[in-house]
């Protein structure tokens, strides 16, 4: 098992826990918690594989990831009171998952000899769309459509990875640098309240 495989597992665990925590927050039952954790961890990858015609989708050939999702759900339920009340716990797990799965998506695009821009889009899709499905199932406005900088962090990470890869940097250095960039952007944006502008229609006074 290589470093990339370890990253995939860590990303799966991080996203599964973030999904489980969101479901617990919504007071779902065990089945609901598992489904939300599953689609959060694997939904972006499923969508990516369908788009590029990579079937059966990745997790079906790597079923061990379902075991990691199950373990993550179990741990989230058992330690829900301790995990949930950690400061920014959901944010932390979600950010780690975003960073790792952005790399995963870009790497798959690069391995398939796709255009670098397409590879970056696959990274965004892999990193963001599991969270989109999670938020929809939990009746939340998806995080990428809110003011928070989320998809832009994934975009920056994808571009960073493509540049380092094209310059023949060591893969592990590329992985770590990309993860750090995504995490730093997310933390910095949240810490200082930086976000994209939002727009609304003014209500008539009549």
UniProtKB/TrEMBL annotation:
<feature type="transmembrane region" description="Helical">
    <location>
        <begin position="6"/>
        <end position="24"/>
    </location>
</feature>
<feature type="domain" description="Glycine transporter">
    <location>
        <begin position="92"/>
        <end position="165"/>
    </location>
</feature>
<keyword id="KW-0472">Membrane</keyword>
<keyword id="KW-1133">Transmembrane helix</keyword>
<dbReference type="InterPro" id="IPR005115">
    <property type="entry name" value="Gly_transporter"/>
</dbReference>
<feature type="transmembrane region" description="Helical">
    <location>
        <begin position="173"/>
        <end position="194"/>
    </location>
</feature>
<feature type="transmembrane region" description="Helical">
    <location>
        <begin position="149"/>
        <end position="167"/>
    </location>
</feature>
<comment type="similarity">
    <text>Belongs to the UPF0126 family.</text>
</comment>
<feature type="transmembrane region" description="Helical">
    <location>
        <begin position="31"/>
        <end position="51"/>
    </location>
</feature>
<feature type="domain" description="Glycine transporter">
    <location>
        <begin position="6"/>
        <end position="77"/>
    </location>
</feature>
<keyword id="KW-0812">Transmembrane</keyword>
<dbReference type="Pfam" id="PF03458">
    <property type="entry name" value="Gly_transporter"/>
</dbReference>
<dbReference type="GO" id="GO:0005886">
    <property type="term" value="C:plasma membrane"/>
</dbReference>
<feature type="transmembrane region" description="Helical">
    <location>
        <begin position="57"/>
        <end position="79"/>
    </location>
</feature>
<feature type="transmembrane region" description="Helical">
    <location>
        <begin position="116"/>
        <end position="137"/>
    </location>
</feature>
<keyword id="KW-1003">Cell membrane</keyword>
<feature type="transmembrane region" description="Helical">
    <location>
        <begin position="91"/>
        <end position="110"/>
    </location>
</feature>
<protein>
    <submittedName>
        <fullName>Trimeric intracellular cation channel family protein</fullName>
    </submittedName>
</protein>
